[in-house]
UniProtKB/TrEMBL annotation:
Name of the featured protein: Guanylate kinase
Described purpose of this protein according to its UniProt entry: Essential for recycling GMP and indirectly, cGMP.
Domain of life from the UniProt record: Bacteria
InterPro entries found in the cross-reference section: GK/Ca_channel_bsu, Guanylate_kin-like_dom, Guanylate_kinase, Guanylate_kinase_CS, P-loop_NTPase
Family the UniProt entry places it in: Belongs to the guanylate kinase family.
Molecular function GO labels: ATP binding; GMP kinase activity
UniProt keyword terms in alphabetical order: ATP-binding, Cytoplasm, Kinase, Nucleotide-binding, Transferase
Key word Kinase present: yes
Enzyme Commission number(s) of this protein: 2.7.4.8
Domain annotation Guanylate kinase-like: ranges: 8-188
Amino acid sequence: MTTSTADGNLFIVAAPSGAGKSSLIRALLDRHNDGSMQVSVSCTTRAPRPGEEDGVHYHFLDVATFQQKIEDNAFYEWAKVFDNYYGTSRQVIEETLRQGIDVFLDIDWQGARQVREAYPQAQSVFIMPPSLATLEQRLRSRGQDGDDIIASRMAKAQSEMSHYHEFDYLLINDDFDQALANFEHIVLARRQRMALQQVRHAAKLKDLLANDG
Ligand code: GDP
Ligand code: ADP
Ligand code: 5GP
């Protein structure tokens, strides 16, 4: 992807299913509802859960359509997770970043690897639950998956968590508000990076340094 320093920041967020990725991203967007950040809506072949809306939580596609998009190079990254395909549409990400909007990708570790490779400026955050027992409890309390799905997600949690050290930041989602505050610090710090501030405040910096030398 061709980028400029004024582009939005790309954040990769990964965690074992049920650790609280979606809740943390949603809460952060609610606190910054000024259009400065967006979550990417992935495509998936999994069935919608009760209450999930096409185009809001995911773009729900059949396998043939998903595979056609792979062939058309329409995905920025894609992966098979829990026997379903998941992928991030290339066009939406590129356009949103170009508008200077920060983008969050709620993706698995395989997708995270692809994005880091394609876009090394991306910052990646891994979210851990405080314990395995809490993770299982959260999956159950969400009340959207049956016992067999919960068991397979718990089994997959170990392999997802084993990739945590590939990420730039680690958050433990024990107390939700504390985890949210820490997440927000990561995002806001990234917005103040020198290269971006130099573009944003070019005129001010010129004035401030007018008498230099
Ligand atoms: P959750 O784990 O409860 O949020 O369940 P989901 O069904 O929403 O997500 C399943 C898995 O697919 C998670 O590991 C997500 O991070 C991953 N995932 C979701 N969207 C994408 C995507 O666009 N690309 C990739 N690579 N992974 C995704
Ligand atoms: P993920 O997107 O990682 O699969 P969710 O955001 O759907 O996880 O969270 C799973 C469940 O755990 C949800 O019911 C959510 O409300 C709950 N949850 C998330 N974070 C916390 C927390 N810190 N304390 C208690 N419950 C939480
Ligand atoms: P769920 O089915 O519970 O919504 O998601 C299961 C897993 O798939 C989560 O770990 C989620 O992060 C991952 N996932 C969701 N969308 C994508 C995506 O677009 N790409 C990749 N690689 N993983 C995704």
